[in-house]
Amino acid sequence: MATLSDIGVSALINILSAFAFLLAFALLRIQPVNDRVYFPKWYINGERASPRRGGNFVAKFVNLDFKTYLTFLNWMPQALKMSETQLINHAGLDSAVFLRIYTLGLKIFVPIAVVALLILIPVNVSSGTLFFLRKELVVSDIDKLSISNVPPKSIRFFVHIGLEYLFTIWICYMLYKEYDNVATMRLHFLASQRRRAEQFTVAVRNVPQIPGHSIADSLDHFFKTNHPDTYLCHQAVYNANKFASLVRKRDRLQNWLDYNQLKFERNPEKRPTKKIGFLGLWGERVDSIDFYKQQIKEFDKRMELERQKVLKDSKSILPVAFVSFKSRWGAAVCAQTQQSKNPTLWLTDWAPEPRDVYWRNLAIPFVSLTIRKLIISLSVFALVFFYMIPIAFVQSLANLEGLERVAPFLRPVIELKFIKSFLQGFLPGLALKIFLYVLPTILMIMSKIEGHIAVSTLERRASAKYYYFMLVNVFLGSIVTGTAFQQLHSFLHQPPTQIPRTIGVSIPMKATFFITYIMVDGWAGIAGEILRLKPLVIFHLKNMFLVKTERDREMAMDPGSVDYPETLPSLQLYFLLGIVYAVVTPILLPFILVFFAFAYLVYRHQIINVYNPQYESGAAFWPHVHSRIIASLLISQLLLMGLLSTKEAANSTPLLVILPILTLSFHKYCKSRFEPAFRKHPLEEAMAKDLLGRTTEPDINLKAFLADAYLHPIFRSFKEEELVEIRVDKVRVDRHQSYADNAQSRDDISSPSPPHHAYHPTSPPHHSYHQPTTSPPQDIYHHGIPPQYDYNHYGYHYEAESWTSRD
Amino acid sequence: MATLSDIGVSALINILSAFAFLLAFALLRIQPVNDRVYFPKWYINGERASPRRGGNFVAKFVNLDFKTYLTFLNWMPQALKMSETQLINHAGLDSAVFLRIYTLGLKIFVPIAVVALLILIPVNVSSGTLFFLRKELVVSDIDKLSISNVPPKSIRFFVHIGLEYLFTIWICYMLYKEYDNVATMRLHFLASQRRRAEQFTVAVRNVPQIPGHSIADSLDHFFKTNHPDTYLCHQAVYNANKFASLVRKRDRLQNWLDYNQLKFERNPEKRPTKKIGFLGLWGERVDSIDFYKQQIKEFDKRMELERQKVLKDSKSILPVAFVSFKSRWGAAVCAQTQQSKNPTLWLTDWAPEPRDVYWRNLAIPFVSLTIRKLIISLSVFALVFFYMIPIAFVQSLANLEGLERVAPFLRPVIELKFIKSFLQGFLPGLALKIFLYVLPTILMIMSKIEGHIAVSTLERRASAKYYYFMLVNVFLGSIVTGTAFQQLHSFLHQPPTQIPRTIGVSIPMKATFFITYIMVDGWAGIAGEILRLKPLVIFHLKNMFLVKTERDREMAMDPGSVDYPETLPSLQLYFLLGIVYAVVTPILLPFILVFFAFAYLVYRHQIINVYNPQYESGAAFWPHVHSRIIASLLISQLLLMGLLSTKEAANSTPLLVILPILTLSFHKYCKSRFEPAFRKHPLEEAMAKDLLGRTTEPDINLKAFLADAYLHPIFRSFKEEELVEIRVDKVRVDRHQSYADNAQSRDDISSPSPPHHAYHPTSPPHHSYHQPTTSPPQDIYHHGIPPQYDYNHYGYHYEAESWTSRD
């Protein structure tokens, strides 16, 4: 076990590496050539068209203004400048509320840390069992400050129990305030949104197929009958998954063509060639440019066929539709009520934002959803508890003998003693590292299989799965020795009352491990986040090989968004650690505080300058955050009970029994008080907005407004005549008008906020970032739709420009 | 352990006592004097006004037609005559579906019994471990037929596992068919109902109190804003609990007055007197008739004051209302949507039937509901697991020494050896017996404290609590020795995998106990049910002491209704026993079959001739029945796994693991497929009925129709002028007209059914029971409302006539 000085060394190393990252970031971000990596959000918002410094050729790539190097930490105060309202306007409510989780962590843990350190450390130290036992036991310095130092049956445990009560009450109070706050923010945000397609639209699944009637007819008939006063129109959903996959493949070919053309331009003597066999390793050698052009032509033909099929074949119309209503009230009513006698038909739910729709899952037949959910929950269980089994199997294969057999030519190298020992230490861990790296992807695929139709829901589900994995394998797995599978086995064969004792008793001993974990994963990891090494490299690679026009460069920058499926669970893990160790080893708390403060700064900077949210769910993740902090409270209470029962504190432990019951009731109360704000849509609100809308825009053509809001994004590439067929209004509307409308409404996530002061990280402060700049950014997107709005529907990013602009 | 012959003796005793009950029933029911006890339903339906036989004076009381004595079992075929459609018209859907539980039991267990007996008994008997061990072990004959007889590690366990699969699939198939059936019946029933107040009405709780505005104003404003097209009116709810309790007390006084007046009439020489002290044991002796008249006068004054208070004091208007809509669609929309931004305000839910409303709970403030639920769930837990503690305490007090101290004059009697030993055997059990007798009442009170506003919900909740109690204390308590508390203790200190083993291994040994239980509780108990001993005695007592007029006699008959809180849990226990023992000791199944068949006959007879349902919930209890049978399946699978694991059947037991998962998925599927039919209200349905209504009754005055449907029933005693104030339409409508309307719509639970053949247990078959007889029964109720409709709102029955007819 580590002593205080060991921890000091570890802290030093981690602080140094964090500083190294920060320094690298500070240097890289002020280079004009990296501007699109570190400030993409401003390009997307349309406030920057090119790196800010003009001047000579070199200055276009390297920052020659040496003064700026001196103030390399100035991003921190800048990140704090923007007010929360501005932040919501700038990056959406999701991002603003995401940052509130960090401030909530600070608000919860700063007072707890002060109280715990001031009260518990003296109580624990002065008890001093461990001081006397020192010679017999290997005891770390950290343990002297923890509850382990209190002798069994001591009356001092009342202090710990009292503080557990105090902390629980404090955390519940803060949680209540925060839930209230977030719910109000959400309602205010939704209320202040201007007219948006999803306010009028309901997603209807499982439309019954009546022989002799088209889906469109039965939809029209059903809603005209049952919502006669409010039904407006519907948008059929076409199964364009195959077409979309063709588009994706064609894009990849187009990238290769671009790459080869650029290569040829730079080196006009030699036309690039390639082998047409597997992976370009063998086969006939052909001219690359001709080859790809030929391939693309073939793809265009296949796509044309597929397009005709989608448009003409009635089977490509899915039994799913987006049904729009004349008023928000009508949509709210339809979304919340049961439509049909048969509860598995005509399932209505609020439609996700158009850009939040995960189109591919709309094609999943509803009947298979139950089975999918069952299979996925079994798989998650297996993944959480048995993931070590396949990895151990792979590890047993991926040893040196295996490597030598596969690649005999490496034998002389491997046989070198130095390299051999290195590989022996490295290879077995490799499988595990690869697994942990791809784990979020696996979990996301699992969530996709479950069949949710919104990207936001997918991310929340993936995040839940990741949390279970972390809870079992990082938290419990570090405390109790053995793999999760062994733990599961031993837990099944232990009495239930024994489990908290087993875990509780080892908690104080693992404090040093978790302190190190916080420093590595929390401190250095977050510093790595701000550096954006991967996007930096990819951007420059693309810039070198693919970028021809300004638009290509626009496409090459990958702002990304907050990676909720990974960050939310790890945040929740930090809450768990803080809450569990608050009364056990309070010395851990300052490390968590540093993490929360630092991560807050980093993410605030990233949200302002980098991330470009793919969707806006209106903080729909908050109920999960809330309930997982409550779960952490319950875990901490159970474990403290187990710990104290091993300390034979029989007279004080029963006092704790009532705490979980109270916590649970608090949770139930919060759930009934606030959760409906995140799940349901009050009619009062909808009616108020309808009335407002009727007075401010009395003669709006809603049908035109909704014309292709919920059109599969792939159809935007279709010819105008074809589109008329599949659009809700079925008549030709002025296309650019409707896009402009759309773009405007999208722009108005923010709308009726007071005229706010301008904010820009470097530009003069009176330059408002909200108005489009003089050169409208729409020009660089095809059809005036920003690319992230257009293509992210598929759940994957288009790495280069889309083919559509090329017909 | 009992041998087969022991069971034979027990069966004989129980069959004999069941026959004794049936014989007594057969003799008593054909006496004209008991006609109102055994055929009250026909009096309430208005098809009988007096016992059917005229003739001389004696024949009015005693049946002199000796031929009828010979056919004393003829009620059985009679009970089967009525078709299910007729039954629904006659007694409502609840009763008809309740009977279907018994037929479901038969449908499930007849094939299972045949298969299990044919396959398992040979398999078990021919194994014969126990035959060889006979000398060492005390083994019953029953065990020879059970799974205990199979030697450990036998390959024969595959037969048991195969049958468990087969039975599970069969039960799931039957459950699915039955759920489908019941859901269709419910939807058909609801669809075929004529216009009823609850179709248009929504119960709104937690109406916010806005200072300066009356509740009525804010209600009107809110619903006019948010449901402008459909809102019609609302009925405020007055807190008349105090007034109702005064009415109740006055009724009791009135009963005493009646009793004394009757006594005086029969014996005019002596005016009855009473002592005015505690319980009439001491104090001044006064004239009873004068005393009660005086008391009633005082009560009338207090009631007048209270009535004024209710009408005038704005505080007596509760923040609860019944809001009515112009269309069923409007009500369906309002009931299913969230109204307000604050999800704890304006809570809407479908209104229960007027006679199903439990008025007293409407006064409970909503905020306390969470706390109430928490407290009650803790209490139920405590009651289930620790109920033995207070009883043991009382038992320790209620011994002979205690009795001698309280009543020293009894000492000479108690000291007699024979009586002493009898009392010593009797007294300790007394506390337990009293507890078990009052348990359903306690559970009902608990459910009432939980704050549900419909009597049907209260009964369902009480039934759930009783089920938990039976499951733990009857089922598990009989299998594992020790009190529930000791079991809980040992289960908490056992590994979870050990629990099914502990229970599983003792299951076969308890088969004889449960066979006896089925015979005592099931066979003889059901036979006792048909005899109706308590209502018989009470009816004759009332007839002797209170009845003066024909109307009094009408009041004195207490038809009761199916006692769901007690019968549903015990039914579910029989399902549990059947399912658990099907593969373990199949010889138990025939006993359960006899129970189901016999209970079906008895309850069918009672439902046709006796019970008068207090409310109609449209089989809302079915999802509970379904899910508890599924729970029984899961329990049986777990216990079989435990049992097999003690038999070291390691190669076959793992095969069972997948079964609970499949069962659970089946349950989830059923839940999503059918449960919404019981909880939600499809708009399609509402719209269809609206359209139908608009064409058939285009000019109905809905406001007048709804005028006082949801008026607290106590207000029906108010003067007409006062009523105008509190009724929804606030204008004078023709009162009798509206009642007639009501009565008609109530009558039409049945409506559009084909003209059916007449049915009457004894009258000639062409006498239709559906048309009112020439002497309308309304005459004998005050205001034309049948008494069960008028007074059962309180959740208690008025034993004698109400005071209202006396002002």
UniProtKB/TrEMBL annotation, chains A, B:
Its main location: membrane. It is found in: Membrane. GO terms for molecular function: calcium-activated cation channel activity. Coiled coil: none annotated. Residues 199-361 form the CSC1/OSCA1-like cytosolic domain. Keywords: Calcium, Ion channel, Ion transport, Membrane, Transmembrane, Transmembrane helix, Transport. One of its GO terms (cellular component) is plasma membrane. Residues 372-644 form the CSC1/OSCA1-like 7TM region domain. It is a multi-pass membrane protein. InterPro entries: Csc1-like, CSC1/OSCA1-like_7TM, CSC1/OSCA1-like_cyt, CSC1/OSCA1-like_N. Residues 7-178 form the CSC1/OSCA1-like N-terminal transmembrane domain. The keyword Transmembrane applies. PANTHER family: PROBABLE MEMBRANE PROTEIN DUF221-RELATED, TO DEHYDRATION PROTEIN, PUTATIVE, EXPRESSED-RELATED. This is CSC1/OSCA1-like 7TM region domain-containing protein. It comes from Gossypium darwinii (Darwin's cotton). The lineage of its organism: Eukaryota, Viridiplantae, Streptophyta, Embryophyta, Tracheophyta.
